[in-house]
Amino acid sequence: MAEPWATLGIDLHVEPAGPGLRRGLTDALREAVRSGRLAPDTRLPSSRTLAADLGIARNTVADAYADLVAEGWLTARQGSGTRVAAREVVPPSGTAPPPRAPPRPAYDLRPGSPDLASFPRTAWLKAARRALTAAPHHALDYGDPRGRPELRVALAGYLSRARGVRTGPERIVVCAGFAHGLKLLGTALRARGARTVAVESYGLDVHWRILAASGLDTAPLPFDRLGTDPGALSEADALLLTPAHQFPMGVPLHRDRRTAVVDWARRTGGLVLEDDYDGEFRYDRQPVGALQGLDPDRVVHLGTASKSLAPGLRLAWMVLPPRLAEEVAAAKGGVDTCGVLDQLTLAEFLTSGAYDRHLRATRLRYRRRRDALVAAVTARAPQARITGIAAGLHVLLRLPPGTEQSVVQAANWRGLALHGLARYTHPAAPAEPVDALVVGYGTPPDHAWSGALDALSAVLPG
């Protein structure tokens, strides 16, 4: 394939009929290199081609090239043509240098992401080909803001079978990740007149910020060994909850409290937002059914492919009461939609059984990692107490009082990305601070897992 000329589309600011043409062309080319518009090793057109493009004499271009070669801006070699020399780009005066990206950690034990190396590329590509081949032409249009019907039908079947969700496709709205769905819900709740959303004392601050940006206050509820305590719900209009596997504490909501939450919603007309962020991953206990199954008209079920497949897909879903589904779809609008091809591919992935096969394989992988993590901490860091191990992709490591910050700092010095529990504690949480680490074991690839365990063990109190 012929190599394209980089100067095409670059304005050299040369006036062909003006005086000092050679100097003007030389200055223009020099500035293009200096500013970075012509990158190092870029091949320039031949003198004949550039002369014809600019409408000037070939000798003028050849002389300008020769001047810039002599100055070190360009290089000329037989058979390679004229190229931009390798040199540091100098930003214009008064321009701050671009910020340097922070170095990537050697090991990453932050929660929130799966092992991206385990993404089923081959199976996903096959599903994409089948889905695209079968899709009608109109499927590639803007379509229904609730999402492609193929995916909503597939999700309705899967969620009913695997999570005990009571739904049909008409109740499902597809969104671009959990945060997108929560933003849409916040908008709809505020439009209904809601003022306050009760939240758990421990969770993700990005979720609290999304609700605040929608004009909603967040009020944290107490937390104990039975999970979040719904006793203080009386003043809230809605509740955001992770009942199957509390994030980040790792405990399921006790059955009596599950019942109490639904009773509150029925009694007051409140709405429960059920974040089922890692419902597929259970190891030592039976799966905890979706809270939505207790009352589909008072509980919104939110799920995502970010943990089971990859966060970069930006695919999530909400199962909503019928009227709220219409309001959320209206808030989403006709253009705020997700990629059609990925929706069709996930639908095919679900209906073909590929999703179930992928989950079986990843459950085994993550269970082995969890077992190795528990064994390493037990053997090398007896002062740390590990909890929340029965499900999910993270554990909680309780530390001796007053040690969390120093452990996180020591990990950072060793190139280990690690988060403490303080990062996930609501500023107004009604509880004494707890020193702990939230250790995610999903992110590192298999080949780095033993090294990550060694790095973690090295910074934990002995």
From TrEMBL:
SUPFAM superfamilies to which the protein is assigned, alphabetical: PLP-dependent transferases, Winged helix' DNA-binding domain
InterPro entries linked to this entry: Aminotransferase_I/II_large, HTH_trans_reg/aminotransferase, PyrdxlP-dep_Trfase, PyrdxlP-dep_Trfase_major, Tscrpt_reg_HTH_GntR, WH-like_DNA-bd_sf, WH_DNA-bd_sf
Keyword field contains tRNA processing: no
Record field: compositional bias (Pro residues): 94-105
Region spans: Disordered: 81-112
Signal peptide bounds: none
Domain HTH gntR-type: 19-87
Entry protein name: GntR family transcriptional regulator
